[in-house]
Amino acid sequence: MKKILLLLILAIVFTTNKLWACADVGYDEDGYEYYGLFMQEIVDDPQYYPFLLSLNYAYYASKEDYKLKNENIEEWQQYLGLSYDDAYYLVFKASKEDVDNLLAGKSVGDSLGFATSSFTSKYKQALLYLSYAKYLEPYMMITSSGSDSWGYYRPEDAVSVDKLNYSKVISVLERSWNAESDKELKLRYGYQLVRFAHYNRKYDEAIRYFDKYVEALNYKPAMYYHALSQKAGAEKGLGDVMKANSDFFQVFVHSKNLKESALTSIKFGDNADFNNFLLNAKTQKEKNDAYLLLGFIAFNNPLNEIEKIVAITPDAVQAKVLMMRAIKFLENDILWRWNYSDKEVINDKRYPIIKNETRKFFDNTLNLAIKMTESSTVKDKDYWEITTAYLLFLDKRFTEAKKYLNLVKKSDDIYSWHKRYLAMYIDICEAPEITSQVETYLFETYNDVFTKSTDSDNDNFYEEFFGYKSKSFIIDVLANRYFLQKDYAKSFFLSHRITDLEYYPQLDMLKYVEDFYHKTNKNGLEKYIEGRMYTDKVKPDNVQNYIYYLRGIVYLTKGDYNKALETFNSKGYQTRDQIPSKIFGYNKIECFECSERQVVASDYLTDFSFIKKQMDEKELAETLLQLQKVGQKSDEQAAEANYLIGNFVYNTTTTGYYRHVLRFDNDNSFCTKYYLSNEKVKDIFTTGISFYNYPMHYDNPVSLSQQYLQKALNTSTNNELKARIVFALSKCEQEMYDEGTGPKYWYNDSDNILIKDRKYFKELVKYQNTYFYKDVVTNCKYFEYYVSHYK
Fold first, then answer.
1. From residue 784, how far is each of 28, 287, 304, 764, 772 by CA, in Å?
2. Which end of the chain is more exposed for a tag (fewer CB within 10 A), N or C?
3. CA angle 336, 359, 364 (to 5 degrees)
4. Which residues make Cβ contacts (< 8 Å) with residue 55, sequence separation at least 6?
């Protein structure tokens, strides 16, 4: 009975994220920024997947994604004679109570149906281990208190290793190790001893326990290297970095599941010298892994290490992993669609584009891949042939790319996927022009690529994720080709919806869209592109109305009120919310979030009977035309008319209270998508390579406001009106200043806003006997400051 009680303490390894306790986890320079297209899983060895470059993760993918089996469970599977799933459930899912019920002969759920009475009898010792392991496991956490913190935040009352009685647990584990005769179970006792001491920061004891209870067994399955990882963590805790790195390297070489944590522990250790791994390597696999790590830390040029690996082992997986890293580095530079500077001269703007600074490395990578396809010592030539085909595609050498692609014999899912998409890339890119015949061929040949949704519930992670990325790149390539051959509407709608035109409405672009919309006898690909334009707001039956609306707004912004009215008179004109007559008024105070009644004042509106209190855009255009007609005279009413037009134009600039009216927005809330850029946009039709980065910009017509206001000032003889005009001109002056120097913020003790040298503030002082002057000096803090300091 006493022996049975002692044997309750056997513990199993739970390889969870707690294994990261040995690693200094930080920002990984390899992650986050890579636009990967070539599917790296053709290396076909999941234990090395973490060392491929990624798009979204610090490492390539999570264990759940690449389905790497747990080596600890595989050993339990073999030991207990179970299936992998049953062993996994018993170790990771079953509760301590479940295991205790098995030992007591009580009933358990269906998930443990494999545990018959004969199974329980045969493996009683292992089940006793599991029971106690499930008791210990919740405590296998390192606290974050004290100066020797591991960087984890845990509440003071959190369950952690220091909540257990150290001496008692160690005593039980040692006696159990001595009592057990089975080498497999003794090893697991030893692992728990090392881990428990390590997590308690008793580093010397952890190393001593490893030597006595693990190394002495002379038995090195996967669990041995889990224990060695704990020993290396203890060595690192003592500051013995060289020994720790050496042991972590052995873990890296021999463990499938601990490669990530081992590398991270080495990588962030002090004075890590990867060359020492080469000097101490005993086997070729160890040498290959050492070269892999050297290539990993110098990830931008791993070609030297590849050469050294393949010189001895031409089909080594480590060489393929490093080649994939080289390709991902190239993809980041070649395919990353945000990577092209306006200052860079690109003669051939067709995707893919290899920049001059990338050429040497690209050529070296391609030459190495071709060399491997021609080597008589290479057995797995499919890998190197499809790699060569892809690199040749990136270099626009399409005929050669197809030759190598046709050499690929493998037809499993991954290779079939690659061959099909690469063939499609080539078909698109090698065509001199995307004609109707080419469109028909592409849509008929690759119809499933265009029409397949990647938002399904399919469990095939790679098909869904990489299928999406490949389709996205195909769309980018097509959009690039259409753009270069001036099929601007097709190019735009491959990456945007029609409502995206609101970000930067242009008359030329609206014409291209209109022509494409009305094109008859569209082929299948054109119908597919057309289908991408629609939104809930703009459906097929109101596209033309929407175009009229956008075009009319553009004309209003440009001050061409005749063409605006002509457009709004078009059949089916689409209107929006009513526009108040106060759009011809002026701000008493600067407050975008305040109500119109609080902010906006209006004068002279009653002098023009045709100005309605509420208008749609068409009526607004009619009103502006009538005001223009009055403003052509040379009397006081003409001055009022031009003043009102000037107010309207200013009020629809980026700093006007009604700026949203001509910007397709619901209100004037600051920092919405329509106010993000005031910079002048270059002609994207001649300087761009696609519409992917369609600019967010809207013409700011402040100079037009100045023209109308200056005309009003030149005409008027009424000081009250002239005071109003001069104040309106001062606001235009400020906005022009902001556009030239960037946003300014005003403080009483500085001149970070245009005040001291403000021309129209100086002019406004001349009208200090007017009622308007007395009002504005009270409400406008900028002007009040000017009067009190510079008058």
1. 54, 78, 71, 12, 13
2. N
3. 110
4. 32, 34, 35, 36, 469
Distance between CA 120 and CA 608 in Å, rounded? 98
Helix (H) or strand (E) holding 485: none
Long-range contacts of 61-69 (CB under 8 A, 24+ apart): 63/257, 65/461, 66/41, 68/256, 68/257, 69/256
Task: Specify the pLDDT at position 3.
Answer: 33
Task: Quote the pLDDT of residue 300.
Answer: 57
Q: Given the structure tokens 């033309």, which residue do they identify?
A: 544
Strand (E) or helix (H) holding 615: strand 614-615
Q: Which two tokens stand for residue 124?
A: 């009683």
Please report where in the chains the tokens 């499933």 appear, as a residue: 448
703 contacts 622 by C-beta, under 8 angstroms: no
Count other Cβ atoms within 10 Å, centred on residue 761.
Answer: 24
Burial of 132 (C-beta count, 10 Å sphere; 0-12/13-18/19+): buried
pLDDT score for 226: 95
Q: Give the pTM.
A: 0.76
Q: How far apart are CA 578 and CA 10, in angstroms?
A: 78
Residue 756 near residue 786, CB atoms below 8 Å: yes
Q: What are 713-725's pLDDT values in tens digits?
A: 999 999 999 999 9
How far, in Å, CA of 640 to CA of 312, rounded?
90
Sign of CA dihedral 484, 487, 488, 494: negative
End-to-end CA distance of the chain: 102
Distance CA 340, CA 353 (A): 9
Kindly report the backbone phi and psi dihedral angles of residue 81, in degrees, each rounded to the nearest multiple of 5, phi listed first.
70, 35
Q: Distance (Å, rounded) from C-alpha 661 to C-alpha 638? A: 25
- 131 CB contacts (<8 Å, ≥6 apart)? 8, 96, 99, 100, 103
In sequence order, which ranges of 538-681 are alpha helices (DSSP H)?
543-558, 561-568, 596-599, 617-631, 636-651
- 483 class by beta-carbon count within 10 Å (0-12 exposed, 13-18 middle, 19+ buried): buried
Q: At 162, which amino acid appears?
A: D
Amino acid (one-letter) located at 753: I
Instruction: Give the integer Cα–Cα distance in Å for 239 and 397.
Output: 54
Residues of the chain with pLDDT under 70: 1-36, 50, 53-67, 143-158, 267-273, 298-300, 336-345, 453-470, 670-671, 676-680, 741-753, 791
- The structure tokens listed for 712 are 């009003």
Tokens of 524: 């299948």
What token pair was written down for 115? Answer: 């545990």
For every residue of 427-460, DSSP letters joined together read HHHHSSS--HHHHHHHHHHTHHHHH--S-S----
488: CB partners within 8 A, 6+ apart = 482, 509, 512, 685, 691
Cis peptide preceding 352, ω within 30 of 0:
yes
Q: What is the DSSP code (8-state) at residue 143?
A: -
Strand partners, 579: 615
